[in-house]
Structures are given as structure tokens and as C-alpha cells.
Amino acid sequence: DAGVTQSPTHLIKTRGQQVTLRCSPKSGHDTVSWYQQALGQGPQFIFQYYEEEERQRGNFPDRFSGHQFPNYSSELNVNALLLGDSALYLCASSLVSAWGTQYFGPGTRLLVL
Amino acid sequence: TQLLEQSPQFLSIQEGENLTVYCNSSSVFSSLQWYRQEPGEGPVLLVTVVTGGEVKKLKRLTFQFGDARKDSSLHITAAQPGDTGLYLCAGARGGQGNLIFGKGTKLSVKP
């Protein structure tokens, strides 16, 4: 049973560019959440998708957008990249009925130069 | 202001010692999760606790959820070098899908 997978594993971009990160949830899960983890910090919630709709959003600007596909996989898009967007981006999958239990993927390390 | 405060922030101990990590908040959570994270990797779920006063054991790890569901602790007995890592607590509030994380406790167990 494959767990949560993310691609790519690493990415280097320059300021002003756009990036798309991808996530496939754990088999049987219907909800995908995205988090940003800066060095030395705990993950910060970006948004959550369920039934192809954004269900909840954290305190992130509109440059951060997402999508969920009918097969439950998801994408995170970030436009007009800033140096401060450099971080580990984590995808987590869960069942909408679960009591907060979320399973994380290995993450995508984004470096913005 | 950090909603979930973890302490200590850093912990360096010898193999065989016991330790406790704390996760405190002034807010009530419907559930609380503990994760362990290695550098450059995603957090790995250790346990979910949902009932006030609940105690769960996972081999040498004991997790407790406070009676008021505002705090939690993780106790490791006879720590081993393989326990080294970043321990994160994360709370979920009723009706909300996001997890709120503490900053983590970085544990180093020396042989």
C-alpha cells in the first residue's frame, strides 16, 4: 500500500517564477492538505482540499493556489516566487471523517534564488 | 503567539536515559497528534489521541492527553540512538481540517 507521494523531491527556481508541486494521497484517502515548513519551524497550514474544492485556507497570500483532481491527487501552485518561499512543502492526506489524523509525504524542497 | 508550545526545544541525552517532552496550549483540541521527523523528510505519525486523560503506549513511548484536552506529553523510556529526531505535536480543533503544529523538540540520543 503506497503512502503519500510527492514530486519533485527538490526544485530550484528564481524570484518571480512560478512553480507547481504534485501530491498523490494514500490509497483510500479523500482529503489533501498542504503545509509549508521553514527551517527550524513546525509546518504551517496552507490549505485543504476535499471533493475538488478548497475546504479551508490558512494565512497565505493568493499567490498560493491549488487544485484537487477526481482521483484525489492534488497540485500546489505558487506564483511570483519570493526568496521567503524557500521551504519544505509537505502534502498530507486523510479521511474527511478522521479526527485530525493526517499522513505526510516526504515533501518537496523548494529553493528560490 | 504560538498556539502550541513545546518544551524543551532541544534535548541531548545518553542512551538508556528516560525523557519527557511537553506540548501545552490554552486552547482545547478535539485531537492531538505526535509526529517524528528526520531532516529533509516528512513527519511520520506516531499516535493520535482524542479523549481527555487518554494514555497510549507504543513500545517504549507513552503518550498522554490532558484531561482538559489542552496539553499532551510524550515519555520515552530507555532512549536509544534510533530515537534521535524532531518530535512535533499537532492539534486539530473541532470542525476545522487543519493541524496546528508546535515548533518541535529536537532530540539527540548519544550512544
Description:
- The complex is a heterodimer of chains A (113) and B (111).
- Chain A is 0% helix and 50% strand.
- Chain A has 113 residues and is an all-beta fold.
- Chain A has one domain (5-112): Immunoglobulin-like, CATH 2.60.40.10.
- The termini of chain A are far apart.
- The model of chain A has no long low-confidence stretch (mean pLDDT 95).
- Chain B is an all-beta fold and 111 residues long.
- Chain B has one domain (5-110): Immunoglobulins (Immunoglobulin-like, Sandwich), CATH 2.60.40.10.
- Chain B is globular and about 45 Å long.
- The mean pLDDT of chain B is 94.
CA radius of gyration of chain A is 13 Å
Q: Tally of extended strands of chain A? A: 11
* Percent of residues in beta strands of chain B: over 45%
Distance between the termini of chain B: 37 Å
- Total tally of structural domains of chain B: 1
CATH level 1 class label of chain A: Mainly Beta
- State the shape of chain B: globular
Determine the most extensive contact between two protein chains.
A-B, 30 and 28 residues
- The pLDDT mean of chain A sits at 95
Q: Which structural class is indicated by helix and strand composition of chain B?
A: mainly beta
Q: Give the domain tally of chain A.
A: 1
CATH homologous superfamily classification of chain B: Immunoglobulins
Features:
heterodimer; A: 113 residues; Immunoglobulin-like; seven-stranded mixed sheet; B: 111 residues; five-stranded antiparallel sheet; 11 strands
Give a brief outline of the structure.
Chain A is mostly beta strands.
Give a topology summary.
The complex is a heterodimer of chains A (113) and B (111).
Chain A: E1 5-7, E2 10-13, E3 19-24, E4 31-37, E5 44-50, E6 53-57, E7 64-68, E8 74-78, E9 87-94, E10 103-104, E11 108-112
Chain B: E1 5-7, E2 10-14, E3 19-24, E4 31-37, E5 44-49, E6 55-58, E7 61-65, E8 71-76, E9 85-92, E10 99-101, E11 105-110
Parallel strand pairs in B: 2-11
Antiparallel strand pairs in B: 1-3, 3-8, 4-5, 4-9, 6-7, 7-8, 9-10, 9-11
